[in-house]
Design a protein that fits this description.
With 887 residues, this protein is α/β, with parallel strands linked by helices. The chain has 31 helices and 37 strands. The longest helix is centred in the first third of the chain and has 19 residues. The relative contact order is 0.12. Bound molecules: ligand MGD (2 copies), iron/sulfur cluster and molybdenum atom. Iron/sulfur cluster (SF4) binds next to helix 1 and helix 7. The site of one ligand MGD has 30 residues, from helix 6, helix 13 and strand 23.
């Protein structure tokens, strides 16, 4: 591809399930320029901070560019032969059930389709599961129980058209920022629109809510069962809809009778007036949309949570009409596509059922495959357990990093080390999972690959190539096809992704006639050129029938009797606070990082917001534990211990801590939170409960704390560190139990012994810096407690000419203001700058935007600006030490 010509290419963002359209152009310096695509219906030109910073993540630094076999660079032929040989041998000796694929919602649909075809139709086992098991499995199971198929009934426009939007276990402002902005724009236009947020924590999303219900963790089922009882009591059941289109209503409503407002209040820890207000709003608002995400799905009874929500929508007939319906937002860019191709171990392609013999026959016939798997394969958590039991001999991991993201991650590491043959396809040289691989295969990354993804509202968009394939990287589908051929299988000859898509679209239409929700027959027969031009398209799109936008307004469910099902949901009361492990460990995401940071962690802009893992804890808990703001704490479960920064805030409730799951052994030490998470799963969906493990918290007994800015990427030898990318190098937070020679450590980190220093040995304070021609090339600070320096200033000073005294003081000179922790990543505006403008009279988010620009580009930080402008929060933030993370 001719990079010189630099055409702008319309493609899709590779991060969250909003699925925003992006116009990308390769730049000669190896970056890319990125703008939002105004013609894409998901974002209409908007992008969040992660999407806007995509250009910073396409460099080839740290890219895996050629196959590696047993630690040595290898040719593609030998790598493919090794993989095919290892799988073939395991199958020949131990049967097809002895091999497994663990794949990802970040594969393109075409890749994902091939992975399933190979495993289920040729190898002949359903031992293929995906990280969507950790993400969407409870929603899938809940949809199937209620609707008979995994159908998302509504669209994004419904969120805008709703008069009441209920967000359950969703931090939409940080995790689906562009969709959140669409909602905020709708609310600005129609101020009567109300938003309720149901989340144990106060979040950037709840700041925008009219009502925030800070429920006790894991008590969503009684809240929604009580709501069902309430709508029944005040005559809001849609009897017509229930009679004609559903089953199970009587039983569900009867079972909900125990949940009086008083009972719900005591189960959830909410005040009865809060519960009553929420119930009255729902009862009185026809146009209600309930959005739910991981606070619902990632639970030991996530499927019941999903059905408790759907029950209310079925009972009130509020489904499938504009501004109404349950809406499960997907996390990954192709979580939906993965479900469509049957990525889960209990599904077949095109929403067909592994358990249904007619479906199996149809799929096998379409594939002309030698076999078809007929029993469900291993689900993610069980797959890794099966390795421990010696049942899996060869595993292929693609586009996911289980060593960081699966629960009980230490045991997952042991499994990865133990499995006789591990092949990993990734785009980066260094991930926690790759460390264990016998074979590492270099996959084409975003910008280099071509195919389709489906977003949360069932819209299929093209990801298009706009960069040349670097080194020897290849598309995931092409790698798999070569392995399949090398194993002796026919049926894997494709000229390009358009041929795979065509086969898949044809399968969706095969003998469908409206019997299955997923039908994209209208997209069959596309030539390569037509496929390339494919505009974002919502399914279903049958060849002859009428395309639909929404489902179920007039019934038409996919259950055997065609009726939607209300279910009796069960409340499993959370464990009591055990003396040994008194805290609930809640985990999740931060605004500017994506999962295990392999891509966002390389963008300086995205590392400026929150540069370190942390534990949000309530001030009363911190006081009782003797933890001061910004100190480090040890969090311990029966499985392990991690060290993270304490973020003391009353946004958190007593008895809970929240830790982001992004940091890992490639970016930090001692901070991988999934090592603590218990491998408890939902009995229906098999999805892990990633938000409610039991843990203990205590102060980390640090002998010293350190902070450094360095040009080279370094990992200090101590109990804790976290590293962030800067435009001119790296920032390091670190701490340990013993401090040897601070000067020697500083020399090692900066890479020179020509240091200037200020040392106060008695106080335990050591500060070192190095300059080349007046330019700061590194600085290292040690203290007995959290290092109090201006990180915002020092990280910007690296690589710049600046005075020795200021650097050693760790503060900007008197005449330069200290911006404080970064809030707006796009314009690099810090909290102090925003507060100063507020004092001068800019007291609204728009006024801050006018005078500082902050919040006017991607808008992802608007909720945080709002929070800074709230008096109570300003007081809270003023007492924060500079050392504290800017959450
Ligand atoms: N910035 C960013 N955005 C992302 C991602 C990312 O890594 N970074 N990942 C993407 C992916 S794959 C996903 S799946 C989505 C996830 O998107 P979200 O689900 O919105 O994100 P989380 O932070 O995992 O969890 C959401 C909220 O659930 C709350 N919660 C915890 N326990 C409970 C409970 O018992 N009940 C209720 N009601 N709430 C509870 C948590 O406090 C948290 O605020 O985000 C997507 N978008
Ligand atoms: N404690 C806790 N754990 C969680 C969660 C939580 O909320 N709390 N959330 C869960 C959820 S919802 C999710 S979705 C998972 C996500 O967890 P993971 O899927 O493990 O996280 P990623 O960092 O997205 O991993 C993607 C990997 O694929 C690589 N990659 C990127 N593009 C490509 C490509 O085109 N081809 C190939 N072959 N590789 C590529 C990346 O470099 C990276 O190593 O984490 C889950 N784990
Ligand atoms: S909201 Fe942000 S991360 Fe999600 S698709 Fe859009 S630009 Fe990408
Ligand atoms: Mo996810």
């Amino acid at each position: 591809m001719d990079v010189g010509a630099r055409p702008s290419v319309a493609t899709t963002c590779p991060y969250c399930g909003v699925g925003c359209g992006v116009l990308a152009r390769a730049e000669p310096d190896g970056t890319a320029s990125i703008v939002g695509d105004k013609s894409h219906p998901a974002n209409l030109g908007r992008l969040c901070s992660k999407g806007s910073s995509l250009g910073e993540t396409v460099s080839l630094d740290e890219r895996l560019l050629y196959p590696v076999v047993d630690g040595q660079r290898a040719s593609w032929d030998s790598a493919i032969e090794r993989v095919a040989g290892a799988f073939g041998e395991a199958i020949a000796t131990h049967g097809p059930g002895s091999v497994a694929f663990y794949v990802s919602g970040q594969l393109l649909t075409e890749d994902y389709y091939i992975a399933n075809k190979l495993m289920k139709g040729y190898i002949g086992t359903a031992n293929i599961d995906t990280n969507s098991r950790l993400c969407m499995a409870s929603s899938v199971a809940g949809h199937k129980r209620a609707f008979g198929a995994d159908t998302v009934p509504g669209t994004y426009e419904d969120l805008e058209a709703a008069d009441l939007l209920v967000l359950v276990g969703s931090n939409l402002a940080w995790c689906h920022p562009v969709l959140f902005q669409r909602v905020m724009a709708a609310k600005a236009e129609r101020p009567d629109m109300r938003i309720v947020v149901i989340d144990p924590r106060r979040t950037a999303t709840s700041v925008a809510a009219d009502l925030h219900l800070a429920i006790a963790p894991e008590t969503d089922v009684p809240l929604f069962a009580g709501l069902l009882r309430h709508v029944a009591q005040c005559g809001r059941l849609d009897e017509f809809y229930l009679d004609r289109y559903t089953s199970g209503a009587d039983e569900a409503v009867a079972a909900a009778q125990e949940w009086t407002i008083g009972g719900v209040a005591s189960a959830t820890g909410l005040a009865p007036v809060e519960v009553a207000a929420f119930y009255d709003w729902v009862a009185g608002t026809e146009r209600t949309v309930t959005v739910y995400s991981q606070g619902v799905n990632q639970s030991g009874h996530g499927t019941d949570k999903v059905n408790a929500i759907i029950n209310v929508h079925l009972a009130t007939g509020r489904i499938g009409r504009p501004g109404m319906g349950p809406f499960s937002v997907t996390g990954q860019p192709n979580a939906m596509g993965g479900r469509e191709v049957g990525g889960l171990a209990n599904m077949l392609a095109c929403h067909m059922e592994l358990a249904n013999p007619a479906h199996r026959e149809l799929v096998q016939r379409h594939w002309a495959s030698p076999v078809i798997a007929d029993t469900p394969g291993l689900k993610a958590v069980d797959m890794f357990e099966a390795i421990h039991e010696g049942r899996i001999k060869a595993l292929w991991v693609m586009a996911t990093n289980p060593s960081v993201s699966l629960p009980d991650a230490g045991r997952v590491d042991e499994a990865l080390a133990k499995v006789p043959f591990l092949v990993v396809s990734d785009v980066i040289t260094e991930t926690d999972t790759l460390r264990h691989a016998e074979v590492a295969l270099p996959a084409a990354a975003w910008g280099e690959k071509d195919g389709t993804v489906t977003n949360s509202e069932r819209r299929i968009s093209r990801q298009r190539q706009f960069l040349p394939l670097p080194g020897e990287v290849r598309a995931d589908w092409a790698i798999m096809c070569d392995v399949a051929k090398c194993m002796g299988f026919d049926g894997f000859d494709y000229d390009g992704p358009h041929e795979i898509f065509d086969e898949y679209a044809a399968l969706s239409a095969l003998e469908n006639d409206g019997s299955r929700d997923f039908d994209i027959g209208g997209l069959t027969g596309l030539s390569a050129a037509q496929y390339d031009m494919l505009r974002p398209t919502m399914w279903p799109l049958p060849r002859d029938g009428r395309p639909a936008t929404r489902f179920f307004a007039n019934g038409g469910f996919y259950t055997p009797d065609g009726r939607g099902r209300l279910l009796v949901t069960e409340f499993v009361a959370p464990e009591k606070r055990a003396a040994r492990y008194p805290f609930t460990l809640n985990t999740g995401r931060v605004r500017d990082q994506w999962h295990t940071m392999t891509r966002t962690g390389r963008a300086a802009t995205l590392s400026a917001h929150i540069a370190e893992p942390y534990a949000e804890m309530h001030p009363d808990d911190a006081a009782e534990l003797g933890v001061e703001a910004a100190e480090l704490v040890t969090i311990e479960s029966p499985r392990g211990a991690i060290i993270v920064r304490a973020l003391v805030t009353d946004r958190q409730q007593c008895g809970s801590v929240f830790v982001p799951f992004h940091w890992n052994d490639a970016t930090s030490r001692g901070a991988r939170v999934d090592t603590l998470v218990a491998p408890v799963t939902d009995p229906v969906s098999g999805q892990p409960a990633s938000k409610s493990s039991r843990v203990a918290v205590r102060p980390f007994d640090a002998a010293f704390y350190g902070f450094a800015v360095t040009r080279e990427k370094r990992a200090p030898d101590c109990e804790y560190f976290a590293r962030a990318t800067l435009s001119a190098g790296h920032a390091l937070e670190f701490a340990g139990r013993t401090l040897g020679d601070p000067r020697a450590l500083a020399e090692e980190l900066i890479g020179t012994d020509a240091l200037v220093s200020v040392v106060d040995e008695a106080a335990g304070s050591f500060r070192f810096a190095a300059f080349e021609d007046g330019v700061l090339v590194g600085a290292v600070f040690f203290a007995r407690g959290p290092v109090a320096v201006s990180r915002a200033w020092l990280t910007g000073a690296l690589g710049q000419a600046c005075g020795h005294a200021a650097v050693l003081a760790g503060r900007p000179p008197q005449d330069q203001p200290d911006p404080g922790p970064t809030v707006c990543a796009c314009f690099k505006v810090g909290a102090n700058t925003i507060r100063a403008a507020a004092v001068k009279g800019a007291v609204t988010v728009d006024a801050i935007g006018e005078c500082l620009g902050a919040g006017t580009n991607c808008g992802s930080c608007r909720a945080e600006i709002q929070r800074l402008l709230t008096v109570a929060e300003v007081t809270q933030d003023r007492v924060r030490d500079d050392a504290e993370v800017g959450a």
